[in-house]
Structures are given as C-alpha cells and as structure tokens.
Amino acid sequence: MSTVVTPAIDMREPKRLLAPQLTVLAALGVMLLAFAPTLISFPPAWLREGGQGFFVAAFAGYLIWRDRDKLFEFRAAIPEVSLVIAGLSVLWLAAYILNVQVVHQASLPLVLLAWLLAVGGVRPAVVALPIVAVFF
Description:
- The protein has 7 helices and no strands.
- By secondary structure, it is mostly helical.
C-alpha cells in the first residue's frame, strides 16, 4: 500500500493579489495620466523639428524593453526622494501654466527618474539614466 505525500500549505503567509511589477506599472500609468498634457505636447514639437523625436522615443522604448528586468530590481526604496518629486512636480505645473514648454517637457523625465529612485532604489535609477539621457 502506497501513501501519497502532499506538500503542506502555509496558511500564515498572505497571498499577494498583484505582482509588484503590475503595481508599479499601474502607479506609473496613473502618473503618466497626470502628466498627459506634456505627453501630448511631444509629437507636435517633434514634427516641427523634423520628426527625429519619434526615433528617439522608439529607441527609449527599446532601451526600456531591453532593461526591463533590471528596472524592476527593487531593493531599497528611498522615500525621502518624494520631496524632490514634489518639487519637480511643482516646477512642471508652474512651467505648464506659464507655457514654458521646454521646462515642463524636460521636467517629466526627471520626475520619472526620481519616482523610480524613490520606489526602487539606486540600482533601477542607474539603469534608467541612459533612457532619460536619450530624451535630453
């Protein structure tokens, strides 16, 4: 007679409903919706300058896809950076209201970089530096 051994289920460990990547992507999506006026302002500016901005955006997308695993290596969050994010957001808002397009467009990648630093720590932010540099 054989006995069947089933693995024990640890009921003390809570189940996670969402993977950390989905949570981060959802938060990033909400943030990008908040900065939608700047995102909408990029294509007309790129068209005025000959269209090379579309290639830059495609290249940045490729870099994000290539380094996606490293961008999600969250180790030590740095919540103190949230003050920098708040300051950059105020800068963005003032530039948007005053219609200083170069400032509100330049502040968006910096806000994203600071956000990544606050949530994921130094390593993902260092990986994202070349991606942000492509936009500048």
